[in-house]
Amino acid sequence: EQKRSGTLLAGLEHLDDRYLKAVGYATKSKRGNLPKMVLIGDIVGDDADAVARATSEVIRLANGRSGEGFIAISAEARKKFWLDRKRTAAISKHTNAFKINEDVVIPLPRMGEYTLGIERINIELSLRNKLKLCEAMEAFFEKGSLPLGKTDDANELPNAELLGDRVQQALALVREVRALWAGWLRDVDALFPQLQDHSLRASWKAQIRAPLQQIFTGAAFAPILAECNAIHKRVLKGRVWVALHMHAGDGNVHTNIPVNSDDYEMLQTAHEAVARIMVLARSLDGVISGEHGIGITKLEFLSDEELGPFAEYKAKVDPEGRFNKGKLLRGAAHQVLLAGDTSVRQAGLENAYTPSFGLMGHESLIMQQSDIGAIADSVKDCLRCGKCKPVCATHVPRANLLYSPRNKILATSLLVEAFLYEEQTRRGISIKHWEEFEDVADHCTVCHKCLSPCPVKIDFGDVSMNMRNLLRKMGQKSWRPGNAAAMFFLNATSPETIKLMRTAMVDVGFKAQRLANNVMKLAARKQTSAPPASLGPAPVKEQVIHFINKKMPGGLPKKTARALLDIEDKNYVPIIRNPQGTTAETEAVFYFPGCGSERLFSQVGLATQAMLWHAGVQTVLPPGYLCCGYPQRGSGQYDKAEQMITDNRVLFHRVANTLNYLDIKTVVVSCGTCYDQLAGYEFENIFPGCRIVDIHEYLLEKGIRLEGQGAYL
Q: Which residue, 499, 448, 482, is CA-closest to 633?
């Protein structure tokens, strides 16, 4: 087809069932269950009919092998198909992003043999883990003094009499199942087809847990069953398995083994699996150097003959061994290159060290006693994939490479490790480390755009707010006059205070900033045309230029929206409606303007109320000046935010009780941050059955739009 019409298979990617679970794959099949594997292909060409014919042939091939095919034609549909492939890094989420990645290249005709070989390894690893579970369960029942709950009987029976022969029944069950599974492992060659298609399945739930629940029936035995579940969870955490995703078009297979870096036995088991995988790849005429090259985990599997050309090349270009000192060489080549310097160890796995928050958490109470443990836990799943970089407002490569969410997580992890070390050694946490911590926390606009592309759904906006809150609680947050003035303005509820602050900040401050922009535009051009590289807080001169280089909005209303409408009294609930076009039965909405649309850019609040008037609805406003609490959370003032949120919710309940005859079903907002914050107010419990909607969406529902304007509506 390629020769005849120019149609080309531009890409072919494979995900096995373990990857499909990790990426949260939504099956397109009507069968409902998760497929064993998915192939995603890009078929391209200049002739649409030829591409359609080639696509249909691929679907026919899939159908002939009990598979199904689905086609994405539009750009949006194609993007949706490929999103699952982009989230493959999520495979190691459960091991805190730690995995062993062994990419190999297998000849395409033998790819099926490789996947079967990996499946065989996985079955053996699973059975070994199940046998380990049986050993742990047997040890639990043999130790005696089993945990028992209280009974309703005033004259409680002795434990031995209460248990009866249940322990012997449990031991007999576990030993019987263990013998069965051990037989399967012993005869895995003969039983492989049945184990692969699950005709034979080692099931903890069906073969052990369910019978144990029958043996230990009753509330008195609930602690025993709870401990059995805990044992299973603990043993399962150490289970090793191999997951595959591949560039199926060229035979490059990413063979990934997620492991917990604080579990030595798990690491050893994974290393044994790697050795088997390398043997398997070579036995199929494959090679163990894929697109990721050779690292310290593969070095031991290369022969001296294979390493020879590299050793010769490195000796020529780096005769003193300065680059990657001690790495990727061994034996005689290592010693020759280092000129007999025996102080430098060979960089192999035998000398490798992996820091682990799991180990540090066991050793330090600070992880449990402060918010730093929650911060560390919220970023521990980061996969270092960098998919958050393009959308981040603080990631500006020409300025620095430090403040993308990925790199801020790296910095946060290092700082947490430093905090723990200093706490454990009783040195006291360095002020410099707190300054670095604040620098990371400050470089975030809390826009939450990093959440969407993240495979493991880390929201660094939330992390930044938690970091700022910790800094405030520890007394390490720097005082900044601009921030203090802004928060005072947003926290104020008195009309007189708001009027005074608005006069100072908007009437005078905005005008002064606009004047400074006109006067100093030429002087600031050098910095604005070529911004300098940045690290940490900028010098005062740069801050001043940055503050004035763009004009603040001009022509703002002289008064707030409430002042213009004379509804500042917090003892009254304002209801805005058109007497000629509405009645008591007309639809009513609750509009929360927030501080931005009401006290700062009041024209936004007025425009929203005017459009709601035009839509013919009754608009209920909250009494008095209110803030949703998001700015306080964003700046790390969690205590103030929680107090404000609680007060607002109590007030809204009172409003709802007073105006229950209006049957409000819609809460309208004109501010994105208010929308985000009000989602946690549980408005469905305030105005039963209500929803929160943006004013633009509400107007579209009412059929109000600007036809032919090329604008949002």
A: 448
Separation CA 422–CA 424 (nearest Å): 5
Query: Rounded distance, CA 366 to CA 374, Å?
Result: 11
* CATH C-level class of 372-476: mainly alpha
pTM value > 0.90: no
Mean pLDDT by 10 residues, the chain (713 residues): 74 87 82 85 88 90 89 87 79 73 89 93 96 95 82 58 85 95 94 92 94 90 92 93 88 89 87 93 90 77 84 87 75 53 57 58 57 85 89 88 92 87 76 91 92 91 94 90 90 92 89 89 81 81 86 87 90 91 88 90 92 93 93 92 94 93 93 92 92 94 77 55
- Which residues lie across from 252 on neighbouring strands? 105, 247
Distances in Å between the alpha carbon of 272 and those of 119, 175, 243, 328?
15, 27, 15, 20
Strands (E), 502-617: 575-576, 588-592
Backbone dihedral region for residue 7 (phi beyond 0: left; psi -120 to 50: alpha; all else: beta): beta
CA dihedral (46, 48, 54, 55) positive or negative: positive
Extents of the domains making up the chain: 2-86, 101-150+162-292, 294-354, 372-476, 482-548, 561-701
Which CATH architecture does the domain made up of 561-701 adopt?
Answer: 3-Layer(aba) Sandwich (3.40)
SS3 16: strand
- The alpha carbon of residue 502 and the mean position of all alpha carbons in its chain are separated, in whole angstroms, by 40
The two structure tokens encoding residue 305:
């003959």
